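Run folding on both entries below.
>entry_1
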Amino acid sequence: MNQEFLYVIMIIMLGYLLKRLRVLKETDGEVISKIIFKITLPALVLVTFDSVKIETSLILIPVIVFIFGIMTALLGVLFFKHEKRELKGSFLMLSGFNVGLFAFPLVHAIWGVKGLTYFSMFDVGTSFTVFGIAYILGSYFSEEGLGLKPVEILKRLSKSVPLMTYIIASILNYSHIHLPDLIIHVAKTISGANMPLSLLLLGLYLNFKFEKQLIKPMLKFLTFRYGLGLIVGLALYFFLPYGQMFRSTMLIGLLLPCAASALTFAVEFNYSTTRLIAIISNITILISIVILYIFANFI
């Protein structure tokens, strides 16, 4: 496992080095991210769900994640009530988790296909949190004070290729329907590119230049996010009556980095805090790498 972690860090650093040497640019990341979310990640999901049996208890994972998202939103409104409207909205938009890009490569290195199955279900709950709760709050707390758009939210959910793939793959799994071997073999070949592309993209997006006045709000947000995630995660780990992998998924999942979609929402709602959101996303990646390594060793 230590060796796999070393490989992961080296690929992330390679992505960062390629950016520093101007072999790649951050703008190239848009194309890479589209390839990941629309091709390699769905392929990985199809292969994973075709080869394992999904236990009934796994349905609880997205439910718990979504409930945690609601709890985070309610507590966040109180915790950041004295912050400016736009800053409050920025923090609340960061309530999701970066599962597809960040967690999948590391989880696969540690737990293999079984781990991917559990974290895939976690990602389903995250998708509803990001495109539901985070999107609504980001819209509401923007300077324009945009109204709620349930139709727009449903459209976003339906256009999420990974989410639709999760749903279809889950239905096929529960129905004991297997895709033709040809499709699975092709998907398996494509899915092999998911890990290196995801890690290179993380390195490509790393950027830690920020103004000193941003330190205080960042520390406040990080304290809230990781403090709440750790408290709830430990409670679920010790008190849930399920297996080790289930409880480990909940504990580690609630300590993953912020969802990358927050930056997209910030641009859509004309936030002036896009740089702050990007920096926080980068910092949470580093923090979560350390957390994942420590917990994986202890668990």
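>entry_2
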Amino acid sequence: MMPAFFIAHGAPLLAIETNEYTQFLQRLGQTLPRPKAIILFSAHWESTVQKISDVKQYRTIYDFGGFPEALYQIEYPAQGDHQTVKEIQEAFEEQHVSYEIEKNRGLDHGAWVVLRLLYPDADIPVIAMSVNPHLTPEEQYKVGQSLSKLREKGLLIIGSGGTVHNLGAVKMAGNDGNIDEWALRFDEWLARCLTNWDVESLFHYSRLAPAADLAVPPYGKEHFIPIFYAMGAAHNEPKAQLMHRSYRYGNLSHSVWQFG
């Protein structure tokens, strides 16, 4: 049984940095059982209908601007896997989840930054998945839940985003040592709920969590919701473990949660 993960993809600079977080992700990739394929829900692919990528080989999408040229030279030429796509389709149809197949889209940085740190050789098939911020958290959880049996087949399910992701509040220069108190309060509330598998509180995080309006602003909700897809994928083994948490730029969280 493979675990499911929520992994923060942080800023694109992680792709060329060496720090506590990048080193953790590299070690994680080396210690996990080798997955048959990876199903990854990315915060940077939004759609109102669930999308499933079915491509032979992905191109690398540079969906950011104003960063060092070295970032734009990186390629992550992962391959897809049509058989895994068929298994996802069957799981969705069994649970009455509407979906569409996407034949052309590449991997955005929410996917390739994380995957490149975990599996730098790009030798594990990847199925990229969209997220839908217009669904309720419970509905997002159920999408993930519909895929839970695929973990038994050696498939690794990842939600890529960020628990605290407010670009209007980050402090880009010289503030890594001072973490905003509101970000800590939100992440500590989240940790209690996840550890207790308190889905009812989590589904109403926007009302119940301290500083939810700062940690998950309306324009940044897509970064938080991948946690529900990943958590749902482990509903049949409801265990949550915080594997890593650190911060950059005052409040941008680098959290890794393992489910199952």
